[in-house]
Amino acid sequence: MIVGAGFAGYRTARTLSRLTRGRAHITLLNPTDYFLYLPLLPQVAAGVLEPRRVTVSLSDSLPDVRLVLGEADRIDLDDRTLHYTGPEGEGGTLAYDRLVLAAGSVNKLLPIPGVAEHAHGFRGLPEALYLRDHVTRQVELAASSDEPETCAARCTFVVVGAGYTGTEVAAHGQMFTDAQVRKHPLRQGMRPRWMLLDVAPRVLPEMDEKLSATADRVLRQRGVDVRMGTSVQEATHDGVVLTDGEFVATRTLVWCVGVRPDPLVESLGLPMEKGRLLVDPHLRVPGRPELFACGDVAAVPDLENPGSYTPMTAQHAWRHGKIAAENVAASLGLGGARKPYRHRDLGFVVDLGGAKAAANPLGVPLSGVPAGAVTRGYHLAAMPGNRVRVAADWLLDAVLPRQAVQLGLVRSWSVPLDTSSPEVARVPGGPGRRQEASARSGPGAALAADTDDGGTGGGPGRYRPPDEPAKGQPGSGATQVRPGSGAAVPRSEPETAKGRPAADASGSGRGELRSESETAKGRPAAGTAAAARAADEPAKNQPGGEPARNQPGGEPARNQPGGEPARNQPGGEPAKNQPGPVHPPDTGSPPGRPAPHPAPGPVKRTDVPDDPDDSTKGDS
Asked: Which of 223, 204, 159, 226 is nearest to 358 (CA)?
């Protein structure tokens, strides 16, 4: 059993399959059906590569491996069983003789006010797609704005973290937005501004100083505002406050400060080292001969530097996978002797967009076109698939302009910063997932906190995001939590179509659960039998159920969240022939969230962005 199909897990499965030659049953548990080549993710966000180019099908490339879609919830080490939750909320149990933990990492959070609400990570494909759409939208909205302040804020993009990921995101992002503005100049004559912040003294502090200087020079020549020794002190709806006291108006905050191990390993109760599972040089957990760990979740002793552990990088994870597979095969008597993990540094490559890069293959520092050629050649050689398609996209990008369009497939609330599954986007009606109260994400997170009981979630009409099962916790994933107090409120069809919450006859705000057929029509339940049916079978228009037409999560009704933007709503156009005062929706909430009802009165028009929150990624 292999948990995770990142660099370490995928390499383990592929190598073990070749070594055993059908003499062992290999099962791979992963939330998605593809391996993601993370180093090229910034090129997806910048429109250079199509999303599927950086993915490799697990079923096609691992024909002798059984793929199980799901996320591990709990591991019983004594019974040698693993409990997981499938993509549609169903639970399952898998038994194993050998277990390889390669669950990877998630976004690293810091206790900075507002970051969890207004920033996004950059660890998965959904986050890259969201950033691509969001940046395109901000430039288009800035081009149509008549206010210089609003135009400047929308065209300012702040990236926190000057490591591999942050540096590449800023470099590609500046080129992407400059290309958009060249074709459609801004009314105010402004140029998009990308800022790269880090508390470190220089860009790419992990690399050689020559490479760091090369990357810094390329960024500044391209127009990126590089500020070392500076970070974010507070994030707000309208911008960020820097540690030097300056306020930067922006609608985009990309969080690339690093990664932390997947929280699954914390539940095992085994010795840890800074959140990573301690293993011996053979990648085996001491005292557990059936348990192996590799990649970002494993603290692997660095035999080349005694007393330290190998860093959390893709290069080490890829090499861990090969050694883990060989040692698992040896433990089953299907291979040779066990091998300790040793490595030799072959150098680093950083893609800075276009023909620019910084690289030091075999210790030889390169810059400019030679570095760009080496960098792209390395990625083509390292990718386990899609090489021809990637090369074709690079060729087309060199001779054709990029398509700057927003597809709107991933919304801000779908990619929160604090999530244990950055590779999976949240969807309306999907299985519940844990989300920390302090890390709610979405365009309306700050507004909702101010209007509903100070953000405690207890106010009337308040939508509670479905709980995300904590990895490694017993019982997670078995029950889906419905928004609110747990009792569904019967609403008439007109009220449901308008997205307004309705109280029951008693006015208490609590109603009966409705049957599937009644719920689809907006009719109240007929009795306890319908309520029992609704408890067993998710009702339409309820989280986990089949969405109904004209309901949030189904075919979007006009003027409803998730559909065509409501006129006179933030991010939309004025509504025609709408009686009464306008009730602005909470734009950062998933479809289906009841909008707060302000008191009737004159409507004050404000300039609220369509998506004030934004993104980030992990180490290459």
From this structure: 204
Do residues 78 and 99 touch, judged by C-beta distance below 8 A? no
Kindly report the number of other CB atoms within 10 A of residue 516's CB atom: 18
CA distance 87 to 85: 7
- Give the separation between CA 397 and CA 370, rounded to whole angstroms: 19
DSSP 540-568: TTSTTSPPPTTSTTSSPPTTSTTSSPPTT
Tell me the C-alpha distance between 417 and 254, whole Å. 10
Residue linked to tokens 């059993």: 1
The amino acid sitting at 273 is: E
Rounded Cα distance, 174 and 384, in Å: 29
Any alpha helices (H) in 400-456, and if so which ranges? 445-451
pLDDT in tens, 197-229: 999 999 999 888 889 999 999 999 999 999 999
What spatial distance separates the first Cα and last Cα of the chain, rounded to whole Å?
Answer: 26
pLDDT value for 315 = 92
**Closest residue by Cα to residue 430 from 439, 442, 421, 438:** 421
Strand partners, 616: none
SS3 state at 67 = strand
Q: Where are the alpha helices (DSSP H) in 63-124?
A: 115-118
Enumerate the H helices of 420-485 as residue ranges: 445-451
> For residue 430, what pLDDT band results from cuts at 50, 70 and 90?
low
Q: What are phi and psi of 535, to 5 degrees?
A: -70, -30
- DSSP code of 603? P
- The crossing angle, in degrees rounded to 10, of helices 368-382 and 387-399 is 150
CB 255 within 8 A of CB 127: no
Sorted by sequence, the CB contacts under 8 Å of residue 152 that are 6+ apart come out as: 142, 188, 190, 193, 249
Look up residue 7 and give its amino acid. F
Rounded distance between C-alpha atoms, residue 171 and residue 254, angstroms:
13
> Residue 226 in contact with residue 220, Cβ under 8 Å?
yes
Lowest mean pLDDT among 3-7, 27-31, 141-145, 552-556: 552-556
**What pLDDT does residue 429 have?**
61
CA-nearest of 492, 495, 494, 488 to 514 is: 488
Task: Look at the chain and count its residues.
Answer: 620
- Rg over alpha carbons for the chain, rounded to the nearest Å, is 25
Phi, psi of 94 (to 5 degrees): -125, 140
Is 45 in contact with 128 (CB distance < 8 Å)? Answer: yes
Measured in whole angstroms, the distance separating CA 90 from the mean position of its chain's CA atoms is 22
pLDDT at 25 over 90: yes
